Amino acid sequence: MSILILYGSETGTAQDLAESLRREAQMRHLAARVFELDEYDVGNLLSEDVILFVVSTTGQGEMPPNMRKTWKSLLRKSLGTDFLLNTHCAVLGLGDSSYQKYNFAGKKLFRRLAQLGAKMMTRSVFLADDQHEIGIDGAFIPWKQEIWTRIWEMGIFEKMSEQIDPEVEIQTKYRLVAVEEAPEEEPEDVTPSDSEYRALRVASNVRVTSEAHFQDTRLVKFEIPSENPMSYLPGDVLMVRPYNPQETVQIAIEALGYSPEMLNKTVKVVKNDPNSKNPPYFLFGKQKTTLLTLLQRYFDLQQIPKRSFFEMMAYYSKDPSEKERLRELSSPEGLDDLLDYANRCRRTTAETFRDFPATSKHLELDHLFEILTVIRPRAFSIASAPSRSHVELLVAKVEYKSRMADRRRGLCSTFIARLKEGDEVFCKIRAGTFRFPPPDAPVICIGPGTGVAPFRSLFGQRSEISPNSTGLLFFGCRGEHVDFYFSDEWSKMECVEVVAAFSRDTEKKVYVQHKMGERARDIKKMLDSGASVFIAGSSGDMPKAVASVLAQIQGEEWTKKAEETGRIQYETWS
Ligand SMILES: Cc1cc2nc3c(=O)[nH]c(=O)nc-3n(C[C@H](O)[C@H](O)[C@H](O)COP(=O)(O)OP(=O)(O)OC[C@H]3O[C@@H](n4cnc5c(N)ncnc54)[C@H](O)[C@@H]3O)c2cc1C
Ligand SMILES: Cc1cc2nc3c(=O)[nH]c(=O)nc-3n(C[C@H](O)[C@H](O)[C@H](O)COP(=O)(O)O)c2cc1C
Description:
Elements: E1 2-8, H1 13-27, E2 31-36, E3 50-56, H2 68-74, E4 88-95, H3 104-115, E5 119-120, E6 126-129, H4 137-154, E7 174-178, H5 192-195, E8 198-207, E9 217-223, E10 237-241, H6 246-256, H7 260-264, E11 266-271, H8 281-284, E12 289-290, H9 291-297, H10 307-316, H11 320-330, H12 335-343, H13 349-355, H14 357-360, H15 368-371, E13 378-381, E14 390-396, E15 399-400, E16 408-409, H16 411-417, E17 424-430, E18 443-446, H17 453-465, E19 471-477, H18 487-490, E20 497-502, H19 512-518, H20 520-528, E21 532-538, H21 542-554, H22 556-565, E22 568-573
Parallel strand pairs: 1-2, 1-3, 3-4, 4-5, 4-6, 18-19, 18-21, 19-20, 21-22
Antiparallel strand pairs: 7-11, 8-9, 8-17, 9-14, 10-13, 10-17, 11-12, 15-16
The structure holds flavin-adenine dinucleotide and flavin mononucleotide (FMN).
């Protein structure tokens, strides 16, 4: 008898949590199977006793791609209200409250399961929020505590223990084997979500902010190989899979005590559980790889370690004093201590290995698969007009100071900023949030900073196919000669008038919302003649300020309705 854990994930976080639930179930003597939702046969759901769902929301409040088939099946009218009568279910939604349709996938799934008669194990859906001070752990930890108690109280899993048994030996998800010892060749991995990623060659990488400006923003051009074509539309995003920076890999290698021989020995990653999903072999090689490649491309060494990192380090530690400290940091009472040690100063995972030398130096290689999470791809709005030969991104490098001695750097934006011509990067195209109207329909776009990227794509396309269309673009930046992206291009596009707000060129700071206020009459005229509004960029104060100007122009009621019907659309990020 075992429980079933199903996940729906776009960038891998829900999968990580599902795997960590499987591990914790194992530590409670409870067998668990983990599948991505679309890999599991919906018809079998009704014969399960307990199902734990972990699902993220993607796009604009959408279900992640690897659960859309199942979601469609679950919505079938033919399924009665007693379909899941004998099944206990719980749902953890993963989302980000800076998105308008916050955690829609988890909320909808919870409601539908209840409609289908499932016995819901919690009174409502638990919602994990990227914006929480400790990220998704803010909801994941209380949710799983409640779930384990419920399952224990059911009393149907005889061997289950109420508390975690520290003596249980966890079977790692994968193991590393020397290539001579690797088992028989397996058929090539054809997992669709992985195989959609393909290596794109960097054609150019140009800094578009002035050298004197602190912000390093890049316009990066990737070539699309003609033998492996891909196409995109304005509003689409490019998912990019970054690698760890060399300096972070070096900190980890020293902390873990790996010799050059260990790092460069040819190995293969093999699944321990035949039911589990293959790792993304395309990233590091299926038949042969090295530990060094895994440290560079697969394990996330740069992220702030989550509580599960400390739990697993404590579990594997043989050093009494480090074990105790790791336990403190992973305990519910140690939350503030953890925030102070890891989150507030934005310590990286590699630096944390360094702080626990006795534990780190004695970890077995296979333990890394349980301690570390996998590098997540990042989304970037495509900045070029549709083309079969290339795709461009406008990327602002994230870099800032914290209490730590070294400057903190965003993983993917730094990776992109350092790309050289000829480098290859794994990417895939997916739909973004925006659904633009036909090319001749009027549009008002608001895109300060890198938020202008999707509008360069849109107006670039309109210049070619609908040059007489009407567009008004509000762009905001610090200064006309500092970070006014594509300033030389806009004047050549007849289909758009660009209104720029420079926040530091005058004594009084001028932002896009101020410029919109100045152009209220034109905006009203355009809206009355059917224009749609698109807002892209930082999810800070800007979207609210823009919505408030629109409400002043057209009224609160109109604005609310326009947001609901898609006349006003947002693509914002933190
Ligand atoms: C649909 C979509 C489209 C996007 N389009 C673009 C685009 O066109 N261009 C673009 O540049 N980005 C875009 N982004 C953002 C992009 O995906 C990344 O989030 C961004 O590049 C940062 O990623 P990173 O890996 O460099 O940083 P990470 O390693 O993920 O670190 C980012 C984290 O660092 C923290 N942080 C950042 N600055 C500070 C600070 N000053 N103090 C303390 N903490 C800080 C924040 O918590 C933030 O979450 C888009 C995002 C989405 C979802
Ligand atoms: C392109 C993109 C779109 C997103 N859209 C939403 C959204 O509409 N609502 C929401 O609550 N969260 C949204 N998120 C946040 C994710 O749900 C959140 O980061 C989650 O932890 C990702 O889980 P995953 O890695 O399993 O896909 C979005 C994230 C990305 C990258």
